[in-house]
Amino acid sequence: MSPQLYAAITQLPEHAWQLERAEPDAIREWAEVPYVPDDGDHRKDRPWGRRYLAVRIRRRQGELFADGSTVKQFAIVTNREGDGLTLIRWHREKAGTVEHAQHVLKNELAAEALPSGKFGANAAWFRLNVLTYNLLRALKRVALPGDLSDARPKRLRFLVFNTVGKVVQHARRMLLRLTVAAQQALVAFARRKILALSPT
To answer: Which domain-ending residue is among 49, 70, 93?
Structure first.
């Protein structure tokens, strides 16, 4: 938070703050801040203009935070339109989603192990990993059954892409049950859903 934005938040009149929620030990409030940064890249008349939403947390009965303050203030910068409280809640619901995507990219799609000492080759490698991630997300959302909608790449690899069969024990015998029919059924299901997306 820049000193200028902090000053704009602290100068807000009390009636600008709206209750977000009351907790047992604190009160959370929010307000829209009429702030225009002096970075030369912002004007209120632009359709993609930035909005500043402030969140204020006050301790009940004058208790202090660990740093000795009575109030904590945060800011969310967005270019989205709509109700400020709805945007704040949407922002909180996203918490951790970027880290999850980074984990999948690095640990399951090999984006962590760069193949070259050259920047351009590594950039191409990373783009291919991101493209694979996006294609897998589209595949899960559009073409696969609901139980695979949140499957990680490792699970998709073993269930869809390269599962040959399953070892089962039946009547004191160990059998290899081939999954060709099941895979064909899954591929046919996915293909039908993908073809249904194409315009007629």
So the answer is: 93
